[in-house]
Amino acid sequence: xxxxxxxxxxxxxxxxxxxxxxxxxxxxxxxxxxxxxxxxxxxxxxxxxxxxxxxxxxxxxxxxxxxxxxxxxxxxxxxxxxxxxxxxxxxxxxxxxxxxxxxxxxxxxxxxxxxxxxxxxxxxxxxxxxxxxxxxxxxxxxxxxxxxxxxxxxxxxxxxxxxxxxxxxxxxxxxxxxxxxxxxxxxxxxxxxxxxxxxxxxxxxxxxxxxxxxxxxxxxxxxxxxxxxxxxxxxxxxxxxxxxxxxxxxxxxxxxxxxxxxxxxxxxxxxxxxxxxxxxxxxxxxxxxxxxxxxxxxxxxxxxxxxxxxxxxxxxxxxxxxxxxxxxxxxxxxxxxxxxxxxxxxxxxxxxxxxxxxxxxxxxxxxxxxxxxxxxxxxxxxxxxxxxxxxxxxxx
Length: 396
Ligand SMILES: NC(=O)c1ccc[n+]([C@@H]2O[C@H](COP(=O)([O-])OP(=O)(O)OC[C@H]3O[C@@H](n4cnc5c(N)ncnc54)[C@H](OP(=O)(O)O)[C@@H]3O)[C@@H](O)[C@H]2O)c1
Fold this sequence. Notes:
Elements: E1 2-7, H1 11-22, H2 24-31, E2 35-41, E3 55-56, H3 59-63, E4 68-73, H4 80-90, E5 94-97, H5 100-116, E6 121-122, H6 134-140, E7 146-152, H7 155-167, H8 171-180, H9 189-192, H10 195-209, E8 219-220, H11 228-237, E9 239-250, E10 253-264, E11 276-283, E12 287-294, H12 298-314, E13 340-345, H13 349-356, E14 360-365, E15 368-372, H14 378-383, E16 390-395
Parallel strand pairs: 1-2, 1-4, 2-3, 4-5, 5-6, 8-10, 10-16
Antiparallel strand pairs: 7-9, 7-11, 9-10, 11-12, 13-15, 13-16, 14-15
Bound molecules: NADP nicotinamide-adenine-dinucleotide phosphate (NAP).
NADP nicotinamide-adenine-dinucleotide phosphate is lined by residues 7-13, 41-43, 74-76, 80, 98-100, 125, 129, 296-297, 301.
Protein backbone atom coordinates (compact mmCIF):
# COMPACT_ATOMS: atom_id res chain seq x y z
CA UNK A 1 0.00 0.00 0.00
CA UNK A 2 1.30 3.45 -0.91
CA UNK A 3 0.27 6.59 0.96
CA UNK A 4 -0.36 9.72 -1.11
CA UNK A 5 -0.98 13.40 -0.34
CA UNK A 6 -2.65 15.99 -2.57
CA UNK A 7 -1.67 19.66 -2.24
CA UNK A 8 -4.45 22.02 -3.42
CA UNK A 9 -7.84 20.32 -3.97
CA UNK A 10 -9.10 22.65 -6.72
CA UNK A 11 -10.24 21.66 -10.22
CA UNK A 12 -7.39 19.19 -10.83
CA UNK A 13 -6.51 18.19 -7.26
CA UNK A 14 -10.19 17.70 -6.38
CA UNK A 15 -10.64 15.42 -9.41
CA UNK A 16 -7.54 13.44 -8.44
CA UNK A 17 -8.97 12.92 -4.93
CA UNK A 18 -12.37 11.87 -6.27
CA UNK A 19 -10.87 9.36 -8.71
CA UNK A 20 -8.57 7.95 -6.01
CA UNK A 21 -11.60 7.33 -3.79
CA UNK A 22 -14.04 6.23 -6.52
CA UNK A 23 -11.77 4.04 -8.68
CA UNK A 24 -9.56 2.54 -5.97
CA UNK A 25 -9.84 -1.01 -7.35
CA UNK A 26 -8.97 -0.01 -10.90
CA UNK A 27 -5.99 2.03 -9.71
CA UNK A 28 -4.78 -0.82 -7.51
CA UNK A 29 -4.99 -3.20 -10.46
CA UNK A 30 -2.98 -0.86 -12.68
CA UNK A 31 -0.46 0.23 -10.05
CA UNK A 32 0.01 -3.27 -8.64
CA UNK A 33 -0.57 -1.87 -5.16
CA UNK A 34 -3.30 -0.13 -3.20
CA UNK A 35 -3.10 3.69 -3.37
CA UNK A 36 -4.30 5.35 -0.19
CA UNK A 37 -5.15 9.05 -0.11
CA UNK A 38 -3.80 9.98 3.33
CA UNK A 39 -3.78 13.79 3.25
CA UNK A 40 -5.30 16.68 1.31
CA UNK A 41 -3.57 20.01 1.99
CA UNK A 42 -6.02 22.93 1.82
CA UNK A 43 -6.15 26.44 3.27
CA UNK A 44 -9.22 25.65 5.32
CA UNK A 45 -11.45 22.73 6.41
CA UNK A 46 -13.62 21.35 3.58
CA UNK A 47 -16.58 19.74 5.41
CA UNK A 48 -18.64 19.11 2.27
CA UNK A 49 -15.96 17.11 0.41
CA UNK A 50 -15.87 13.29 0.39
CA UNK A 51 -12.25 13.48 1.61
CA UNK A 52 -13.04 15.93 4.43
CA UNK A 53 -11.40 13.70 7.05
CA UNK A 54 -8.07 13.79 5.15
CA UNK A 55 -7.80 17.59 5.04
CA UNK A 56 -4.82 19.25 6.77
CA UNK A 57 -3.76 22.88 6.64
CA UNK A 58 -0.11 22.48 7.65
CA UNK A 59 2.29 21.08 5.04
CA UNK A 60 4.78 19.94 7.67
CA UNK A 61 2.32 17.18 8.71
CA UNK A 62 2.81 15.65 5.26
CA UNK A 63 6.51 16.48 5.10
CA UNK A 64 7.23 14.73 8.39
CA UNK A 65 5.08 11.65 7.84
CA UNK A 66 7.73 9.18 6.73
CA UNK A 67 5.04 6.88 5.33
CA UNK A 68 3.94 9.39 2.67
CA UNK A 69 5.39 7.92 -0.53
CA UNK A 70 4.25 10.51 -3.06
CA UNK A 71 2.91 14.07 -3.15
CA UNK A 72 0.60 15.39 -5.89
CA UNK A 73 1.03 19.15 -6.32
CA UNK A 74 -1.99 20.93 -7.85
CA UNK A 75 -1.79 24.34 -6.16
CA UNK A 76 -0.34 26.08 -9.22
CA UNK A 77 2.11 28.97 -9.58
CA UNK A 78 5.56 29.30 -8.06
CA UNK A 79 4.75 30.47 -4.52
CA UNK A 80 3.66 27.84 -2.01
CA UNK A 81 3.83 25.16 -4.74
CA UNK A 82 7.56 25.70 -5.28
CA UNK A 83 8.33 25.69 -1.57
CA UNK A 84 6.31 22.52 -0.91
CA UNK A 85 7.70 20.64 -3.92
CA UNK A 86 11.25 21.47 -2.82
CA UNK A 87 10.50 20.31 0.72
CA UNK A 88 8.72 17.14 -0.43
CA UNK A 89 11.62 16.12 -2.69
CA UNK A 90 14.16 16.93 0.02
CA UNK A 91 12.15 14.72 2.39
CA UNK A 92 12.56 11.83 -0.09
CA UNK A 93 8.99 11.84 -1.40
CA UNK A 94 8.17 11.37 -5.09
CA UNK A 95 6.27 14.30 -6.61
CA UNK A 96 3.75 14.50 -9.46
CA UNK A 97 2.65 17.94 -10.61
CA UNK A 98 0.32 19.51 -13.17
CA UNK A 99 2.02 22.89 -12.76
CA UNK A 100 3.48 24.15 -16.07
CA UNK A 101 4.78 27.39 -14.59
CA UNK A 102 6.69 25.49 -11.91
CA UNK A 103 8.33 23.12 -14.42
CA UNK A 104 8.98 25.77 -17.08
CA UNK A 105 10.63 28.14 -14.59
CA UNK A 106 12.21 25.76 -12.05
CA UNK A 107 12.26 22.38 -13.81
CA UNK A 108 16.05 21.98 -14.04
CA UNK A 109 16.54 22.74 -10.33
CA UNK A 110 13.67 20.50 -9.16
CA UNK A 111 14.61 17.58 -11.40
CA UNK A 112 18.17 17.74 -10.08
CA UNK A 113 16.81 17.83 -6.53
CA UNK A 114 14.68 14.76 -7.27
CA UNK A 115 17.70 12.93 -8.64
CA UNK A 116 19.85 13.90 -5.63
CA UNK A 117 17.20 12.47 -3.31
CA UNK A 118 16.67 9.27 -5.31
CA UNK A 119 13.04 10.06 -6.14
CA UNK A 120 11.02 10.97 -9.24
CA UNK A 121 9.34 14.22 -10.27
CA UNK A 122 6.87 13.65 -13.11
CA UNK A 123 4.73 16.31 -14.81
CA UNK A 124 2.80 14.75 -17.70
CA UNK A 125 -0.29 16.89 -16.99
CA UNK A 126 1.66 20.16 -17.27
CA UNK A 127 1.53 20.05 -21.10
CA UNK A 128 -1.58 19.09 -23.00
CA UNK A 129 -3.71 18.35 -19.88
CA UNK A 130 -5.12 14.88 -20.42
CA UNK A 131 -3.13 14.08 -23.58
CA UNK A 132 -0.37 11.57 -22.96
CA UNK A 133 2.40 13.49 -24.71
CA UNK A 134 5.51 13.93 -22.52
CA UNK A 135 5.78 10.25 -21.64
CA UNK A 136 5.58 9.05 -25.27
CA UNK A 137 8.02 11.80 -26.25
CA UNK A 138 10.65 10.71 -23.74
CA UNK A 139 10.00 6.96 -23.97
CA UNK A 140 9.08 6.25 -27.55
CA UNK A 141 10.95 8.73 -29.74
CA UNK A 142 14.47 8.21 -28.41
CA UNK A 143 15.65 6.83 -31.76
CA UNK A 144 14.90 10.12 -33.51
CA UNK A 145 16.72 13.36 -34.06
CA UNK A 146 13.92 15.81 -33.29
CA UNK A 147 13.67 18.68 -35.76
CA UNK A 148 10.63 20.45 -34.38
CA UNK A 149 7.94 20.26 -31.71
CA UNK A 150 4.90 22.45 -32.31
CA UNK A 151 1.44 22.54 -30.94
CA UNK A 152 -1.89 24.06 -30.14
CA UNK A 153 -1.19 24.25 -26.43
CA UNK A 154 -3.95 26.44 -25.05
CA UNK A 155 -7.60 25.42 -25.28
CA UNK A 156 -8.99 28.86 -24.39
CA UNK A 157 -7.31 30.61 -27.30
CA UNK A 158 -8.13 27.76 -29.66
CA UNK A 159 -11.79 28.03 -28.64
CA UNK A 160 -11.77 31.81 -29.23
CA UNK A 161 -10.13 31.45 -32.67
CA UNK A 162 -12.53 28.65 -33.64
CA UNK A 163 -15.51 30.83 -32.67
CA UNK A 164 -14.10 33.73 -34.71
CA UNK A 165 -13.41 31.62 -37.80
CA UNK A 166 -16.28 29.18 -37.80
CA UNK A 167 -19.03 31.21 -36.14
CA UNK A 168 -18.10 34.75 -37.20
CA UNK A 169 -17.82 36.04 -33.62
CA UNK A 170 -15.69 39.07 -32.80
CA UNK A 171 -12.65 38.54 -30.56
CA UNK A 172 -14.42 40.27 -27.66
CA UNK A 173 -17.62 38.18 -28.04
CA UNK A 174 -15.65 34.94 -28.35
CA UNK A 175 -13.64 35.79 -25.20
CA UNK A 176 -16.86 36.53 -23.29
CA UNK A 177 -18.29 33.22 -24.51
CA UNK A 178 -15.15 31.39 -23.31
CA UNK A 179 -15.49 33.04 -19.89
CA UNK A 180 -19.21 32.16 -19.63
CA UNK A 181 -18.45 28.51 -20.41
CA UNK A 182 -15.67 28.44 -17.79
CA UNK A 183 -12.83 27.96 -20.32
CA UNK A 184 -11.24 31.37 -19.71
CA UNK A 185 -10.37 32.94 -16.37
CA UNK A 186 -11.82 36.33 -15.41
CA UNK A 187 -8.26 37.63 -15.98
CA UNK A 188 -7.48 35.87 -19.26
CA UNK A 189 -4.05 37.50 -19.79
CA UNK A 190 -1.92 34.34 -19.45
CA UNK A 191 -4.05 32.57 -22.04
CA UNK A 192 -4.72 35.27 -24.63
CA UNK A 193 -1.22 36.76 -24.52
CA UNK A 194 0.38 33.38 -25.21
CA UNK A 195 2.09 33.06 -21.80
CA UNK A 196 0.44 29.73 -20.92
CA UNK A 197 1.30 28.26 -24.34
CA UNK A 198 4.81 29.69 -23.94
CA UNK A 199 5.40 27.85 -20.66
CA UNK A 200 4.26 24.60 -22.27
CA UNK A 201 6.41 24.95 -25.36
CA UNK A 202 9.40 25.62 -23.07
CA UNK A 203 8.75 22.32 -21.28
CA UNK A 204 8.45 20.50 -24.61
CA UNK A 205 11.69 22.11 -25.79
CA UNK A 206 13.48 21.28 -22.50
CA UNK A 207 12.47 17.64 -22.86
CA UNK A 208 12.98 17.15 -26.56
CA UNK A 209 16.28 18.95 -26.86
CA UNK A 210 17.68 18.29 -23.36
CA UNK A 211 18.31 22.02 -22.82
CA UNK A 212 16.96 24.57 -20.38
CA UNK A 213 14.72 27.01 -22.23
CA UNK A 214 13.95 29.96 -19.98
CA UNK A 215 10.38 31.26 -20.58
CA UNK A 216 11.52 34.83 -19.93
CA UNK A 217 13.73 34.62 -23.06
CA UNK A 218 10.97 33.29 -25.32
CA UNK A 219 8.90 35.62 -27.48
CA UNK A 220 5.20 35.03 -26.77
CA UNK A 221 2.67 36.75 -29.01
CA UNK A 222 -0.94 35.97 -28.20
CA UNK A 223 -4.21 36.40 -30.02
CA UNK A 224 -5.45 39.74 -28.67
CA UNK A 225 -4.40 41.59 -31.87
CA UNK A 226 -6.33 39.22 -34.16
CA UNK A 227 -9.29 40.86 -35.89
CA UNK A 228 -12.36 39.73 -37.79
CA UNK A 229 -10.50 40.78 -40.97
CA UNK A 230 -7.76 38.21 -40.21
CA UNK A 231 -10.43 35.52 -39.76
CA UNK A 232 -11.96 36.54 -43.13
CA UNK A 233 -8.53 36.35 -44.81
CA UNK A 234 -7.90 32.88 -43.35
CA UNK A 235 -11.26 31.67 -44.57
CA UNK A 236 -10.65 33.11 -48.06
CA UNK A 237 -7.26 31.33 -48.15
CA UNK A 238 -8.85 28.00 -47.11
CA UNK A 239 -6.65 28.07 -44.01
CA UNK A 240 -7.07 27.99 -40.23
CA UNK A 241 -5.86 30.66 -37.86
CA UNK A 242 -4.34 29.08 -34.74
CA UNK A 243 -2.02 30.01 -31.87
CA UNK A 244 1.05 27.77 -32.12
CA UNK A 245 3.95 27.24 -29.77
CA UNK A 246 7.00 26.11 -31.75
CA UNK A 247 10.47 24.85 -30.86
CA UNK A 248 12.54 24.42 -34.02
CA UNK A 249 16.08 23.05 -34.16
CA UNK A 250 18.52 25.03 -36.29
CA UNK A 251 21.91 23.31 -36.08
CA UNK A 252 22.90 23.38 -32.40
CA UNK A 253 20.48 26.22 -31.63
CA UNK A 254 16.77 26.44 -31.08
CA UNK A 255 14.16 28.94 -32.15
CA UNK A 256 11.31 28.94 -29.62
CA UNK A 257 8.30 31.20 -29.91
CA UNK A 258 4.52 31.50 -29.63
CA UNK A 259 2.55 33.27 -32.36
CA UNK A 260 -0.71 33.15 -34.26
CA UNK A 261 -0.21 31.20 -37.49
CA UNK A 262 -2.08 30.71 -40.73
CA UNK A 263 -2.23 26.91 -41.18
CA UNK A 264 -2.92 25.16 -44.49
CA UNK A 265 -5.95 22.85 -44.38
CA UNK A 266 -3.70 19.86 -45.23
CA UNK A 267 -1.60 20.27 -42.07
CA UNK A 268 -2.35 17.72 -39.30
CA UNK A 269 -2.89 20.57 -36.79
CA UNK A 270 -5.53 22.28 -38.97
CA UNK A 271 -8.59 20.26 -37.84
CA UNK A 272 -7.82 20.75 -34.12
CA UNK A 273 -10.75 22.94 -33.05
CA UNK A 274 -12.42 24.29 -29.93
CA UNK A 275 -10.85 23.50 -26.57
CA UNK A 276 -8.80 20.58 -27.92
CA UNK A 277 -5.00 20.66 -27.78
CA UNK A 278 -2.50 18.92 -30.05
CA UNK A 279 1.26 18.48 -30.26
CA UNK A 280 3.06 17.53 -33.47
CA UNK A 281 6.61 16.19 -33.39
CA UNK A 282 8.85 15.98 -36.44
CA UNK A 283 11.54 13.31 -36.05
CA UNK A 284 14.27 11.94 -38.28
CA UNK A 285 12.97 8.37 -38.47
CA UNK A 286 9.31 8.54 -37.55
CA UNK A 287 8.41 11.60 -39.65
CA UNK A 288 5.45 13.54 -38.22
CA UNK A 289 3.55 12.29 -35.16
CA UNK A 290 0.45 13.99 -33.75
CA UNK A 291 -0.87 13.75 -30.20
CA UNK A 292 -4.28 15.33 -29.62
CA UNK A 293 -7.07 15.39 -27.06
CA UNK A 294 -8.50 17.34 -24.12
CA UNK A 295 -5.94 19.91 -22.99
CA UNK A 296 -7.70 20.81 -19.75
CA UNK A 297 -10.53 19.98 -17.35
CA UNK A 298 -10.44 18.33 -13.94
CA UNK A 299 -10.99 14.65 -14.77
CA UNK A 300 -8.94 14.72 -18.02
CA UNK A 301 -5.99 16.38 -16.31
CA UNK A 302 -6.32 14.09 -13.27
CA UNK A 303 -6.08 11.16 -15.70
CA UNK A 304 -2.56 12.32 -16.67
CA UNK A 305 -1.59 13.07 -13.05
CA UNK A 306 -2.68 9.64 -11.83
CA UNK A 307 -0.95 7.92 -14.76
CA UNK A 308 2.29 9.47 -13.46
CA UNK A 309 1.46 8.23 -9.96
CA UNK A 310 0.93 4.70 -11.30
CA UNK A 311 4.18 4.91 -13.26
CA UNK A 312 6.14 5.83 -10.13
CA UNK A 313 4.48 3.14 -7.99
CA UNK A 314 5.28 0.52 -10.63
CA UNK A 315 8.92 1.65 -10.90
CA UNK A 316 9.88 2.32 -7.28
CA UNK A 317 13.68 1.92 -7.60
CA UNK A 318 14.03 4.16 -10.62
CA UNK A 319 15.69 7.54 -10.14
CA UNK A 320 14.44 10.66 -11.92
CA UNK A 321 13.83 9.43 -15.50
CA UNK A 322 13.86 12.80 -17.33
CA UNK A 323 16.05 15.84 -16.70
CA UNK A 324 17.84 18.69 -18.43
CA UNK A 325 20.82 20.78 -17.36
CA UNK A 326 20.41 24.19 -15.72
CA UNK A 327 22.60 26.04 -18.27
CA UNK A 328 20.40 28.12 -20.54
CA UNK A 329 19.95 26.86 -24.10
CA UNK A 330 21.34 28.94 -26.97
CA UNK A 331 18.25 30.44 -28.56
CA UNK A 332 18.01 31.99 -32.03
CA UNK A 333 16.22 35.29 -32.42
CA UNK A 334 12.72 34.56 -33.82
CA UNK A 335 13.15 37.72 -35.93
CA UNK A 336 15.52 35.60 -38.05
CA UNK A 337 13.08 32.68 -38.42
CA UNK A 338 12.48 32.02 -42.11
CA UNK A 339 8.90 31.44 -43.20
CA UNK A 340 6.14 32.53 -45.51
CA UNK A 341 4.18 35.26 -43.72
CA UNK A 342 0.60 36.50 -43.91
CA UNK A 343 0.30 40.25 -43.50
CA UNK A 344 -2.59 42.69 -43.18
CA UNK A 345 -2.23 46.34 -44.20
CA UNK A 346 -4.05 49.45 -45.43
CA UNK A 347 -1.08 50.45 -47.61
CA UNK A 348 -1.44 50.40 -51.40
CA UNK A 349 -0.67 46.98 -52.86
CA UNK A 350 1.91 48.47 -55.27
CA UNK A 351 3.92 49.94 -52.38
CA UNK A 352 3.94 46.52 -50.68
CA UNK A 353 5.09 44.72 -53.81
CA UNK A 354 7.81 47.27 -54.43
CA UNK A 355 9.22 46.66 -50.95
CA UNK A 356 8.51 42.92 -50.57
CA UNK A 357 8.55 41.48 -54.09
CA UNK A 358 5.71 39.26 -55.32
CA UNK A 359 2.72 38.94 -52.95
CA UNK A 360 -0.13 36.40 -53.20
CA UNK A 361 -3.09 38.67 -52.46
CA UNK A 362 -6.34 37.54 -50.90
CA UNK A 363 -9.70 39.24 -51.52
CA UNK A 364 -9.84 42.51 -49.52
CA UNK A 365 -11.58 42.49 -46.13
CA UNK A 366 -13.19 45.92 -45.65
CA UNK A 367 -10.47 48.57 -45.77
CA UNK A 368 -7.70 45.98 -45.43
CA UNK A 369 -5.52 44.21 -47.94
CA UNK A 370 -4.14 40.83 -46.91
CA UNK A 371 -1.62 38.60 -48.61
CA UNK A 372 1.27 36.18 -48.34
CA UNK A 373 4.96 37.05 -48.70
CA UNK A 374 7.62 34.86 -50.24
CA UNK A 375 9.93 33.08 -47.76
CA UNK A 376 11.46 35.80 -45.59
CA UNK A 377 12.07 36.84 -41.97
CA UNK A 378 10.33 39.26 -39.61
CA UNK A 379 13.53 41.28 -39.53
CA UNK A 380 13.43 41.71 -43.32
CA UNK A 381 9.76 42.69 -43.16
CA UNK A 382 10.56 45.26 -40.49
CA UNK A 383 13.51 46.54 -42.52
CA UNK A 384 11.17 47.12 -45.48
CA UNK A 385 9.82 50.12 -43.55
CA UNK A 386 6.23 49.14 -44.40
CA UNK A 387 3.58 49.76 -41.71
CA UNK A 388 2.07 46.26 -41.58
CA UNK A 389 -0.84 45.87 -39.12
CA UNK A 390 -0.39 42.13 -38.58
CA UNK A 391 2.34 39.67 -39.53
CA UNK A 392 1.75 35.98 -38.81
CA UNK A 393 3.88 33.01 -39.99
CA UNK A 394 2.30 30.47 -42.34
CA UNK A 395 2.46 26.70 -41.85
CA UNK A 396 1.99 25.68 -45.47
N1 LIG B 1 -7.59 23.33 -14.63
C1 LIG B 1 -7.07 22.64 -15.65
O1 LIG B 1 -7.77 22.20 -16.57
C2 LIG B 1 -5.59 22.37 -15.68
C3 LIG B 1 -5.05 21.63 -16.75
C4 LIG B 1 -3.69 21.35 -16.77
C5 LIG B 1 -2.88 21.82 -15.75
N2 LIG B 1 -3.43 22.57 -14.74
C6 LIG B 1 -2.53 23.05 -13.69
O2 LIG B 1 -2.93 22.44 -12.47
C7 LIG B 1 -2.65 23.32 -11.39
C8 LIG B 1 -3.95 23.52 -10.60
O3 LIG B 1 -4.91 24.10 -11.45
P1 LIG B 1 -6.44 24.16 -11.03
O4 LIG B 1 -7.19 24.60 -12.24
O5 LIG B 1 -6.83 22.90 -10.34
O6 LIG B 1 -6.41 25.37 -9.98
P2 LIG B 1 -7.47 25.72 -8.85
O7 LIG B 1 -8.81 25.15 -9.18
O8 LIG B 1 -7.34 27.16 -8.57
O9 LIG B 1 -6.92 24.88 -7.59
C9 LIG B 1 -5.85 25.30 -6.80
C10 LIG B 1 -6.12 24.78 -5.40
O10 LIG B 1 -4.98 25.04 -4.60
C11 LIG B 1 -5.44 25.59 -3.37
N3 LIG B 1 -4.36 26.39 -2.79
C12 LIG B 1 -3.88 27.58 -3.18
N4 LIG B 1 -2.88 27.96 -2.39
C13 LIG B 1 -2.74 27.00 -1.47
C14 LIG B 1 -1.86 26.82 -0.36
N5 LIG B 1 -0.94 27.72 -0.05
N6 LIG B 1 -2.00 25.71 0.39
C15 LIG B 1 -2.93 24.79 0.09
N7 LIG B 1 -3.80 24.90 -0.94
C16 LIG B 1 -3.68 25.99 -1.71
C17 LIG B 1 -6.65 26.39 -3.74
O11 LIG B 1 -7.42 26.63 -2.60
P3 LIG B 1 -8.37 27.93 -2.37
O12 LIG B 1 -9.73 27.40 -2.68
O13 LIG B 1 -8.17 28.22 -0.95
O14 LIG B 1 -7.90 29.00 -3.28
C18 LIG B 1 -7.32 25.44 -4.72
O15 LIG B 1 -8.04 24.46 -4.04
C19 LIG B 1 -2.10 24.60 -12.01
O16 LIG B 1 -0.70 24.53 -11.99
C20 LIG B 1 -2.59 24.54 -13.44
O17 LIG B 1 -1.76 25.23 -14.34
C21 LIG B 1 -4.76 22.85 -14.69
